# Entry
Amino acid sequence: MDESHQAGKASGEGGCSAGFLRSRWQGKVPLDLLFWRDMVVVGTAINIASSALALILLGLKLPLWLVLAVHFAPVPYSLFLTFAVWRTAEKSGGGKASLMMLGSALWLIATVVA
# Structure
């Protein structure tokens, strides 16, 4: 390990998921990457997988509370991604950032309703 990696661990910036979430919340990830890769591609894939699993569970006649829990499990992550896009877009400003804020709100509605 090099010194910068050790310093990051010592300052609490280590940990895969904590660093992933923190970097997005603090706007350290480029807006394009956050919007297109993290939200549109990965977030949508997680929501589709969750919905598909919920449909399978429903087909297996498992309790409705379990089906709904699986279906809505990604909602907190979707909210996180939407607010992270908004926070990052507010820092960068401009028309493109405003469109990404609108797109993230529409994406959130689509993923929660669908």
Q: What stands out?
A: The longest helix spans residues 31-59.
